[in-house]
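Record type: monomer structure entry
Structure origin: computed from sequence
Chain ID: A
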Amino acid sequence: MKLILKLLLLFIGVLLFNDMELFAAGPPGPPGGGGPPGGCWPPSACIPIDGGISYLLALGAIYGGKKIYDISKKAE
């Protein structure tokens, strides 16, 4: 039970402090974007890929750890 509580607190802490760099973001750019027409270049610089993938990786790691724990308990 203590292990589950520790893992839950760790997971909540990771979720809370995952986007701390957003608090240190600079002021917005000038109106109209100031960049090339139609968005930024290269296009891959405009796509926020890390937002959901980090959550999915964390949940996958927790799920995998739980499966390994269940298998090790069943083997005993």
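Annotation 1: The chain has two helices and no strands.
Annotation 2: Residues 40-76 form one domain.
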